[in-house]
From TrEMBL:
Coiled-coil zones: none
Region of interest (Disordered), ranges: 253-307
Residue stretches of biased makeup (Polar residues): 291-307
Protein name stated in the entry: Heme/copper-type cytochrome/quinol oxidase, subunit 2
Domain Cytochrome oxidase subunit II copper A binding: residue ranges: 115-230
GO MF annotation list: copper ion binding; cytochrome-c oxidase activity
Family listed: Belongs to the cytochrome c oxidase subunit 2 family.
Gene3D superfamilies cross-referenced by the UniProt entry: Cupredoxins - blue copper proteins
Gene Ontology cellular component terms for the protein in this record: membrane
Organism: Halovivax ruber (strain DSM 18193 / JCM 13892 / XH-70)
GO biological process per UniProt: ATP synthesis coupled electron transport
Length: 307
C-alpha cells in the first residue's frame, strides 16, 4: 500500500462514516419534528414523553436513548482515532519498517546501505539535489531521479548548506533536508510515468529556491533493474526524458539503446573531425579551396589558443 493509498482510504472512511452519521441524525431530527409537530388536528401520541423546557429529555425509558447515543458516538470516535493512528504509523514506518518511523538521526552512509534493496539518499544543497542510489549498481546522480514503480523506496534525506525540504507531492512524501541530520522516510510510486517537476524543494531556501524542481521518472521494475545492472540510471533518465525510451520499455530495449549510444559515441569520436572538415571544405571550398582550408586552420588555432 502506498502512502497515497493510505490517505485515500482514510479520506474515504471518514467521508463514508460522516455521510452515514449525517443521514441518520438528519432523518431522526426530521422524524421527531414530524411526530412532535404542533397540530390540533392530530392526537398527541407522545404526550407522556414530551420533554419540558429545562428538563433533560429522557425519552420515557429512563435515559436509555441518550445513553445509547452517547455510547455509540464514543465507539465510532474512539475506533476512528485508533484506526487512523495505526494507519499513520504505517505511513511513517513503511512496509517492512523501511521508513524507519520517520527517524531523524546522524549516521554514516554504511548504515544507510542496510535499510533496503533500494535506498535513495537525497542531498539538497543550494540549489540542486544529489540523489545517491545506495547498494548494488547504485551511484550518484544529480537532479535526475528515476525510480521503479511498485517498489517501496527507502529515502534518507540530508542537506549540505542551508535548510531545504525534499518532497514529491504526487507520492505524498516530504522530508526536511537539514545539514548534519538524516531524515528517514519512504515512498512508493504506483504508476509509471514522467512526473513534471515531481521533485521539489518545499523550504524557502534562497534565491534559487523556485528552480529547485525537477522531473521525476517512474519506470517499470524490469527496466530499472536493467539500468542498475548497467550502472546507468542517469542514461535511463535522459533516454526517457528525451523520448527515446518509454517508461514501460523492456530491459532489452534499454540494452539496445545503450549499445546504440555506445556506437554513436564511438562514431562521433572517430568521425567528428573528418565530417566537420569535409563539410567546411564543401561549403567554403566551392569558390576557392585554399581559402576554406586556411579558414579552418585559423579557427582551429584560435580555439586552441583560447583554451
Ligand atoms: Cu528551497
Amino acid at each position: 500500500m502506498t502512502r497515497g493509498d493510505v490517505f485515500e482510504l482514510i479520506f474515504q472512511v471518514f467521508l463514508g462514516l460522516g455521510t452515514l452519521v449525517g443521514i441518520v441524525v438528519v432523518l431522526y431530527i426530521m422524524y421527531n419534528a414530524y411526530i412532535y409537530r404542533d397540530d390540533e388536528a392530530v392526537d398527541d401520541p407522545k404526550a407522556d414523553s414530551r420533554p419540558e423546557v429545562g428538563e433533560l429529555p429522557v425519552g420515557g425509558t429512563g435515559g436509555k436513548k441518550l445513553f445509547m447515543s452517547f455510547i455509540l458516538s464514543a465507539i465510532i470516535v474512539i475506533s476512528l482515532i485508533v484506526w487512523t493512528y495505526g494507519m499513520l504509523l504505517y505511513v511513517e514506518d513503511g512496509p517492512g519498517g523501511i521508513g524507519q518511523g520517520g527517524d531523524i538521526q546522524v549516521q554514516n552512509e554504511e548504515e544507510v546501505d542496510q535499510y533496503h534493496d533500494l535506498t535513495v539518499r537525497a542531498s539538497a544543497f543550494s540549489f540542486q539535489y544529489e540523489h545517491n542510489y545506495q547498494g548494488e549498481g547504485g551511484g550518484t546522480q544529480g537532479n535526475e531521479l528515476v525510480i521503479p514503480a511498485d517498489v517501496p523506496i527507502a529515502t534518507n534525506v540530508t542537506g549540505t548548506d542551508v535548510w531545504h525540504t525534499f518532497g514529491i507531492s504526487e507520492f505524498r512524501v516530504k522530508a526536511d533536508a537539514i545539514p548534519g541530520e538524516y531524515e528517514n522516510t519512504w515512498f512508493e510510486a504506483d504508476e509509471t510515468g514522467v512526473y513534471d517537476t515531481g521533485v521539489q524543494c518545499y523550504e524557502l531556501c534562497g534565491s534559487g529556491h523556485s528552480g529547485m524542481n525537477h522531473d521525476l521518472i517512474v519506470v517499470n521494475e524490469e527496466l530499472f533493474a536493467a539500468a542498475m545492472d548497467a550502472e546507468a540510471p542517469g542514461d535511463l533518465y535522459s533516454a526517457v526524458e528525451s523520448g527515446e525510451l518509454s517508461v514501460d520499455a523492456t530491459a532489452e530495449e534499454f540494452e539496445s539503446y545503450m549499445a546504440a549510444q555506445q556506437s554513436d559515441d564511438e562514431e562521433s569520436d572517430g568521425g567528428n573531425n573528418s565530417e566537420g572538415d569535409s563539410g567546411d571544405n564543401n561549403d567554403e571550398g566551392a569558390d576557392s579551396p585554399d581559402e576554406g582550408t586556411s579558414n579552418n586552420n585559423e579557427q582551429t588555432n584560435e580555439s586552441g589558443g583560447e583554451n
